[in-house]
């Protein structure tokens, strides 16, 4: 067993809550730009005083609407400023926001609202209003649905103008760090998603210690970031809290299609992203260069960037490499940095493995990507690389106030300020996950002598796509296998841009099915590329996808001529998929699946 811990940089406290950050800045520095909204003529700053006014206005509205301390209120929206306003206003009155992905399926939304016993839901647009309203009858606790785009938040504030400010103050004063701040649902390996209970203290202690540990990011003069990852995920949410704590300006990009334009106009100084985003930036730049007949130059410059960064880790680049690097900088890197607004020097990557290649490339072009690691149960990061202690390929050292242990089976455990209270209403699952204050992560890793953690795999049956989306393959496979033509299937997508599936055909059903369509004699090897068979399996895929969110759904599949059996070593005696075995043996098929898509 190996273990390492880093003492907290900020002493632990019990008093106060997240909403105090908003009040504090409004008192200390009312003119400080805290957020920015995109308008027709650029970005308009929202000062600390304005932020405070809007949050308090909404808090009064919630009180007027009957929201009590401890009440759960769902938020189902893309990433936008209104989400942050709702979060802080709910925290101010002691209520508990419960995030829901805007892409969630009906059954997922129903499960989250029922399990959390949400009394109200804030949604973004009409389709979500319709979805949540249609669940009204099934959810006795749910009283209100407020639609952002229909102006519901303004209406709430307007309805709250008569609420005594002293009442809101009293509510705020009653909320302490040990109180529940949010319940965030995560797809576990089995059963329905579980609600992680995170306290005000989890968010605050982690935000305060992280800001202290990363002054290059949090305390840089004029620091600003553009949030485009979903606020429904804990990572963006923690950064939102950290930003308001540290007083660094935040803009929001709801639609990923606007990201490039927003980066260029907003010009953030640091970014938060998942590996998929870095991959997209890289691929986009390469194909653009290729189209302009500069493909070779780009590839050369990319190699120089990687070599340069590698050399920074191994004693420093020599004269020749420095010269090449400065030419490549003028020819290629400067354009890339300009496309991201020209001011961004640091980015944090988490949620899935970044890979050394991208890590070195970006550092080589002048954007240091600090990889971190964590999970919803650890309020996002448990470890992170820092500018003064960076080792590309690792996920860094524990944050201050956090301890990491790797047990004799290679499993990573985490303890500290960021570890959640437990799963909502699930004492048994909580007891399994938390032992003696330690959280079992289900991830496999290794610690080096200096305390840098490397993630090497996962004990749990969970795929994490390059976009950081956790996908539990079991339920999708179960549904897909239910189709008569399907014998076995395996859902893949770990570290990939999207979820895919390899599907085998039921050789007993195939003749019947084919005969029914006037095609007797269709063989399995013909069937795997047959248009009609493919269309039939596509229907089965569509049905399986209906149970999950878009990001978790199967986008592409391939049919295989050979079934998975116990005999060929692909199934266990209890007929469970031997995942590693299958993915190793069918590596080529998987590559083809992604190459074709
Ligand atoms: P979530 O609770 O949705 O944030 O998912 C957390 C899981 O994502 C972790 O348990 C890991 O399996 C995976 N993960 C997060 N960060 C990394 C990383 N830097 N490298 C590899 N896997 C990661």
TrEMBL record:
CDD domains with a match to the protein in the record: VL_LC_FACS_like
Reactions catalysed, as given in the entry: a long-chain fatty acid + ATP + CoA = a long-chain fatty acyl-CoA + AMP + diphosphate
SUPFAM superfamilies in alphabetical order: Acetyl-CoA synthetase-like (SSF56801)
Name this polypeptide is given: Acyl-CoA synthetase
Annotated ranges, domain AMP-dependent synthetase/ligase: 25-424
One term of GO molecular function: long-chain fatty acid-CoA ligase activity
Presence of the UniProt keyword Flavoprotein in the record: no
Keyword field contains Ligase: yes
Keywords: Fatty acid metabolism, Ligase, Lipid metabolism
InterPro entries referenced in this protein's UniProt entry, alphabetically: AMP-bd_C_sf, AMP-binding_CS, AMP-dep_synth/lig_dom, ANL_N_sf
GO CC annotation terms, alphabetical: membrane
């Amino acid at each position: 067993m190996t273990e390492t811990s880093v003492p907290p940089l900020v002493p632990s406290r019990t008093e106060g809550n997240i909403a105090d950050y908003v009040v504090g800045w409004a008192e200390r520095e009312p003119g400080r730009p805290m957020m920015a909204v995109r308008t027709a003529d650029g970005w308009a700053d929202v000062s600390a005083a304005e932020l405070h006014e809007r949050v308090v206005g909404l808090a009064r509205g919630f009180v007027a609407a009957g929201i009590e301390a401890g009440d759960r209120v769902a938020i189902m929206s893309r990433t936008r400023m209104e989400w942050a306003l709702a979060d802080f206003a709910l925290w101010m009155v002691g209520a508990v926001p419960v995030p829901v992905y805007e892409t969630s399926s009906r059954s997922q939304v129903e499960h989250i609202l029922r399990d959390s016993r949400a009394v109200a839901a804030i949604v973004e647009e009409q389709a979500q209003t319709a979805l949540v309203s249609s669940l009204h009858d099934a959810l006795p606790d749910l009283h209100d649905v407020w639609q952002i785009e229909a102006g519901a938040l303004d209406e709430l504030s307007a309805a709250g103008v008569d609420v005594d400010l002293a009442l809101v103050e009293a509510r705020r004063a009653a909320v302490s760090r040990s109180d529940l701040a949010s319940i965030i649902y995560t797809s576990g390996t089995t059963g329905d998603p579980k609600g992680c209970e995170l306290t005000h203290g989890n968010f605050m202690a982690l935000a305060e210690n992280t800001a202290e540990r990363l002054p290059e990011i949090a305390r840089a003069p004029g620091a600003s970031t553009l949030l485009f990852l979903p606020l429904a995920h804990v990572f963006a949410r923690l950064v939102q809290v950290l930003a308001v704590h540290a007083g660094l300006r935040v803009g929001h990009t709801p639609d990923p299609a606007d990201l490039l334009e927003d980066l260029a106009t907003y010009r953030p100084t640091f970014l938060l992203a998942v590996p998929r985003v870095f991959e997209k930036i890289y691929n986009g730049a390469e194909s653009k260069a290729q189209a302009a007949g500069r493909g070779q130059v780009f590839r050369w410059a990319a190699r120089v960037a990687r070599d340069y960064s590698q050399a920074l880790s191994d004693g420093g680049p020599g004269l020749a490499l420095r010269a090449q690097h400065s030419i490549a900088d003028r020819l290629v890197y400067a354009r890339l940095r300009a496309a991201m607004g020209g001011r961004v020097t640091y980015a944090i990557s988490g949620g899935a493995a970044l890979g050394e290649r991208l890590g070195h490339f970006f550092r080589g072009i002048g954007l240091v990507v600090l990889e971190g690691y964590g999970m919803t149960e650890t309020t996002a990061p448990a470890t992170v690389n820092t500018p003064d202690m960076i080792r590309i390929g690792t996920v860094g050292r524990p944050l201050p106030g956090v301890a990491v242990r790797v047990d004799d089976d290679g499993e990573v455990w985490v303890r500290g300020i960021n570890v959640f209270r437990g799963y909502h209403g699930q004492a048994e699952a909580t007891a399994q996950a938390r032992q003696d204050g330690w959280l079992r992560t289900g991830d496999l890793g290794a610690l080096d002598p200096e305390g840098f953690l490397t993630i090497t795999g996962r004990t749990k049956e969970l795929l994490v796509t390059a976009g950081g989306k956790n996908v539990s393959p079991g339920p999708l496979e179960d549904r897909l296998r239910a189709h008569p033509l399907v014998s076995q299937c395996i859902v893949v997508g770990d570290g990939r841009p999207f979820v895919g599936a390899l599907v085998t055909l039921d050789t007993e059903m195939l003749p019947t099915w084919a005969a029914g369509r006037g095609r007797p004699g269709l063989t399995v090897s013909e069937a795997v590329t047959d248009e009609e068979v493919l269309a039939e399996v596509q229907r089965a895929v569509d049905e399986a996808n209906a149970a999950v969110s878009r990001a978790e759904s199967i986008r592409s599949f391939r049919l295989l001529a050979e079934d998975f059996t116990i005999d060929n070593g692909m199934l266990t005696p209890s007929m469970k998929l031997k995942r590693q075995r299958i993915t190793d043996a069918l590596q080529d098929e998987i590559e083809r699946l992604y190459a074709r898509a």
